[in-house]
Amino acid sequence: MDMKKMMKQAQKMQRDAAAAQEEIASMEFTASAGGGMVEATVTGDGSLKSVKIDPDAVDPEDVEMLEDTVVAAVNEALREASETSNARMSSIMGGMNLPF
Description:
single chain; alpha+beta; 3-stranded antiparallel β-sheet; 2 helices
């Protein structure tokens, strides 16, 4: 393979990766915890967009359980965002183990 062709492929890969990163950053990922009592939505860039809490989940005697449920929902949404991002970038990079 000649060097000029390799450089063109690398530039295309770089453009595709940048476009994918922008697309992923604008995507939203929602996960729930506590049997659906808490729902968290994050964006692909890792920002927490919203948290919805079912009023029945609010027990003044057990705030710690509600806090744990919120954390679980947010972490699950972030995990989904990360997995989607990693899968998309891996497909663009053609299996090359490059950090992104």
